[in-house]
Amino acid sequence: MVADPIAVVGIDCRFPGAGDKDAFWDVLVRGEHGISEVPAQRWDSADFHDEGGGAGRVNTRFAGFMSDPDTFDFEFFGISPREAAAMDPQQRMLLQASWRAVEDSGTDPTALAGSSTGVFVGMMSSEWATLHMSDYAGLTAHRGSGNGYCMAANRISYHLDLRGPSTAVDTACSSSLVATHLACTAIRAGDCDSAIVAGVNLLLTPALSIFYTQAGLSAPDGRCKPYSGDAVGIGRGEGVGVVVLRRLSDALADKQPIYAVIEGSAVNQDGRSNGITAPSRWSQEHVLTAAYAKAGITPGDLTFVEGHGTGTTLGDMIEIKALGAVHAGAERKQPLLLGSVKGNIGHAEGAAGIAGLIKACLALDKRVLPPTLHADSESPQLKLAENGIRLARGPVRLPRGTVRGAVSSFGLGGTNAHVVLASAPAVRRPVESGGVGVLTVSANTVAGLQRNIAAVAETVDSAPADRLGQLCHTSNLVKSSLRQRIAIAVTSPEQVRGELRRLLRDADAVAERSKRPTGKPRVAFLFTGQGSQYAGMGRALHEHCPPFRARLAEADAALRPHLGCSITEVALHGAGHDGLDVGETALTQPALFALQYALATALGDLGLRPDAVLGHSVGEFAAACAAGVLALDEAAALVAARGALMQALPRDGAMIAVQAGEERVSALLADEPLVSIAAVNGPDSTVVSGAAEPARRVAAALAAEGVKTTELVVSHAFHSPLMAPAAAGFAEAAGPLPVRASAVAFASTVHGRFVEGAELDAAYWSAQVTAPVRFTAAMAALLDRAPTHLVEIGPRGVLVGMAARAGLTGGAKRLVPVPGDTATGAEFAATLAALYTDGLNPSWAALYTEGQRTPRRLPGYVFADAERFWASAATVRGTVASVVTKEQPGMPEVGQPQPAAQAPALSGDVRPEVRAVLAVVAEIGDYDPADLAPEAKLHEDLGFDSIMVMQLSDRLTEVLRLPEPIPVTELLPRVTTVGDLLAFAGEVLGEQERNR
């Protein structure tokens, strides 16, 4: 039965000489290696080196060592320094590489939380456990949880909150390729929809080097020379590699970039062969043919094999015989190409299979098979040509069309794995340029933000201009969920590159822009009234913003039966019908409504829904739609009728803005029945409206008192007694309206307070025609809801400025998505960017066209590398905090971090017992007390797990001198942050004193 294809969608790795997958590819394609002398940090090679490889000695000083495997961004994962120091470094390496590999797949790792994603880790040794678990005096709970193959997989599942299978595999050298096979099987069986597959190996002791030497397998120069006449044995290597797997159909549906496709795989065992450590040719043959059968291919379909290729005489010979038995007679145009990554990085043992798999995936993706080191001295004994095989001596360009390769990995104890790969299917996806987007970068700290801005900037600099929208979309998918955030509204490559360069030069700007209040934004929409209209309003947004364009079309369709023309044409170009244009009330009001409806619902499509709404005059209709009180067709009919009724009235009125309060103006209106207050826009901002002559008399009287007045350019005296005939006709039009509850708080500018949906009936809309607009009172009521952001929903910024002048913003940020006739569309994106930075998590996809919603690969998260945790000590903040508990000749010192001795510095009059509580937190987590801010969360920020919470409970009992321990069940619900804990300690002490 042919297996379902599995896509490799994400990769990350660190190997000798290569800090990431791009550097790894450079090492491969350039034919370089990462073999070096044993670093002093590992073990003193002089104590164990003996060229003859005598008892207890090794015959080489060389192997493939990674650079800086001890660095770990413990804060990023919410792990305390004490726990980080107690963890197997392999677990730390896996955490960071897994995060980056998931990002590489075009997925935000936090988005996997709660999913059935599986984790499969291959590893064959834990020298950390050898060093630490036998140190009984120094054994701690965290050393226990930091040990074990299972925990290597389980820790990834825990930190990413994954609910699928989570297992570690040890089949010696084939561990990580067997893990790949198991992951594919689990996906096909439905146990998980995607899988993180990893292999890891770290050389902390010379133990296996001694074993290889004593077994006659170790190369004196520490180098693997696969299939070479110069091969004399194994050279060890280390590293970590992670791939992300998904069903091919799912990956294609989500437009994920695909490195390669796993078409089939097989695993078997040598059984009772000619020795438990000796390979079996027959089993290797069988695993190859089984994998090809599951993939539905013949041996002749393969272009290359990434072999096991350790460089041992027996191992290479048996592998070639097995390959030849299967491939020599196959129909093919060219010999089977063969290589092995072990020439570049050494034999990475538990990570060897994943290293070969990653090499093969990159080769298929880039259509180049890298050279195999030492191929120039091909071993004549292997008779490669007779077996239909040719070593890849230099970079080989792979042919067009579907190309297939395979990867072999054979375990020391006889467990074999073979995986068949094919190049990714060719998919033509259109690339669309133009439009606006938002580039996002997030991190757990401001310093992390600066590192990651630099990495993203490098990618943006080198990207083609037409990929900018795709990069923005990808950054929203992958780089947007962490606490510290930067967002840039993007209109052109030059603009975003310039902004990124500015941020890289100005660290203070990054810190300032990434500041945000705690919690989610509380947003109020302010819907602008008549007078803000102009020909061309919304034109740029219509051109650049797909959701606005779609929602404006909805409003157009709803209004067309009532208007007999396209309101889109009216808004964008000013022209209507029957000689009317956007300046005529019959079209002005529908045009404003259409733009406001489109703007509010487009923001809603992007995940921004208001907590409260306020509309100024005709703006209340779109506000009612946003609140769920009016349906679009109902509001469209009302607005069209309202505009037509007002248009039909005589043009014999006037409206005058007065810089005086309502009370002062009202005193002059008692003798003018045809003039009334039309709007109260601030403490000293009032509008009067009515018949022209008496209105001007009122204005003249006020001017004589030194009050500034300005006659407005209007077609009619709105919100005045002259509107009474329109109100009467409008009552009939609004009569059949259903009454609905408001889904969003509605601040009425008729009543100057919040109203329920039932109050927004036909009588309300009829009264609204003549009633004054009580903007000041409505804004004051709105401020009781403490909005963090005021967003103007209209063709220009009117109400936010009016509110600011009236002192009615309450410190809320003011955002204007369409700032007037100079709008470019970028302001809409900038509104989203500002709200995102302040805690909103938009539904970004709607911002982009279909052609832009294709993920592109961005650089993986750049973790902090200043903090170091090694097997022999924890080096934190530049100082080694360790105590030697056990020494062996030539072995690393085994240490444990010491509690921080420095008393925490607290300001103010703080009781000694409370100071002691803070010192306990620092001691348990091995933190610098200066880092313990009151808002720091014990679990998420400081890594306080159940073990540490129990320790905290015990220590609190001691320092607070309690008669009995505080139950953890009582402590956990009440204590979230350091500040909570200190307050809790104060309460406990106070209660003790009261009870004395």
Structure, explained:
There is one protein chain. The protein is an alpha/beta fold. The strands form seven sheets. It has an eleven-stranded mixed β-sheet, with helices on both faces. The chain has a six-stranded mixed β-sheet with strand order 25-24-19-18-26-27, with helices on both faces. A four-stranded antiparallel β-sheet has the order 21-22-20-23. The chain is built from 35 helices and 30 strands. Helix 11 packs across helix 12 and helix 22 packs antiparallel against helix 24 (632-647). The model is unreliable at 873-906 (pLDDT under 50). The radius of gyration is 36 Å and the shape is elongated.
Give the biggest sheet.
11 strands, mixed
Rg on CA atoms, Å: 36 Å
The CATH topology of the largest domain turns out to be Peroxisomal Thiolase, Chain A, domain 1
- pLDDT averaged over residues: 90
Give the CATH H-level superfamily of the largest domain.
Thiolase/Chalcone synthase
Q: Globular, elongated, flat, extended or rod-shaped: what is the shape?
A: elongated
Spans of at least 5 consecutive residues whose pLDDT stays below 50 are: 873-906
CATH class placement of the largest domain = Alpha Beta
Question: What count of structural domains?
Answer: 4
Structural class: alpha/beta
Total helical elements: 35
Q: Between the first and last Cα atoms, what is the distance in angstroms?
A: 79 Å
Tell me the strand percentage band: 15-25%
